[in-house]
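User: Here's a chain of 508 residues. Predict its fold as tokens.
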Amino acid sequence: MSVLLSSPDPSGHKLREKHAPTASQEPDRKKTSNLATSKPSFHLTAPSGWMNDPCGLGYDPTTGLYHLFFQWNPHGNDWGNMSWGHATSTNLVSWKVSPTPALTPSTEYDRCGIFTGCLQATDIYGNPGSLTAMYTSVRHLPLHHTLPYITGCESLSLAVSNNGGKTWDRLECNPILAGPPEHLPVTGWRDPHLTTWPEEQTTSSGSPQHPLHGIVAGGITGKAPAIFVYTVNPTDLRSWTYTGILVDVGLNFHPSRWSGDFGVNWEVGNLMTLSNNGVSRDFAIMGAEGCLRFEDSLWETPGTAQQHRQARSQLWMCIKPRTLNTVTNLHKNENEALAGYVFGGYFDHGCLYAANSFWDPLTSQRIVYGWITEEDLPDEHRHRQGWSGMISLPRVVDLVTLKNVTKARNSKLESITSIEAIPNNHPSELQTYTIHTLGIKPDPRLCLLRDGAERRYFPDEHLPVSLRDTSDESLSLTSNWWELEAEFSVGSSCGRVGIQIAHTTGKS
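Assistant: Prediction complete.
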């Protein structure tokens, strides 16, 4: 076991280069001085106040900058006044955060909030040199999947920047979509995302095309959580045509402990095609609301803070598209789901939620960010510290392929619903399989954060046999910034293994 201990060296890489706070953002020094060291150094945070979903992710080739917007309340440390904060970076490691919001609730159609959305590095006609933000414009609150849905409460609006994201102009025709499909009773309809899916199709003339789709997350009342799919005109981003729902899994779909509960309403849906050595699979990532607690849960540990978190999960699923009309790129029957569920799993076992992604043209990888919630922190402490929530470190997702697999250590391969196990048809006494699943790993550029770090080794550490047992083994860390690298040896009867991070002697 080894630990990298970092120090806040001004000459090293800093995740965030804060602008000077305005007078209204200046914190109460007396109340927050003892909490100054609690603000993250490696995670992006708002200048002050509440933050949640990452949104408007992307790379602008005109300026050479990455953009990351985020849900932000610049006026308080609780949810409300939802605006878009803005940060830019050249490497996804050092960020420059604007002290003022990029978009704020200021029109009739978005008077109650600028909710999550996406970014396109073109103008609305597909021309380079501008940025277009697509966001959920909210004119009625509260919104929750357990409440009756108010017609017109959520709509889709666009804003354009012609100066690299410094200022934004809303379209006069906003909202471009007044709400969800009129024939569907919904539990929610928000968080637009643009994607090319399926990855490539062939037109009737035989030439390849990359169709542009817009997806909006939500649910259909009493039926299932949903991702609503639209075809989008790439030369006129105002033109969205409803195609159908992506997949129909029913309410609280729970394949097994490996895959979680897909809830009753989805938020921040993403759709992508990932490839590996000529093999491709389609994946959807979603935040699931209304999840039930199951006795076979992989992640719930008695006595830990996660038992008090909201009933939601960050999940993913692999899907298989159904037959499409390749001439019009429209599904033949919009009442039938566009794709079927194949396998799925947890995207994160902790407190990450609202995962959002973009395709990085510099690395040719799909990059994912999420919101790290403050649900484990008492409200009194959270209010006193003057800020709430942070953006996760960037993750890369890809298609993982494992060949010539014979078996899992304990479980039967067919019982693991977070993988696809394909039998290999070759003459052999030993049956082998090719395994496909979603791979999730830290972005390699995060290695820049190790500059100046000190490595310490802790060989032959002995862990307790049971998570409920106590142990005298502990690591005395003198830094607030550290990275742990460990290998585990487990017995054949071991059911689960992991690390508990204790902030106090009482493991709170």
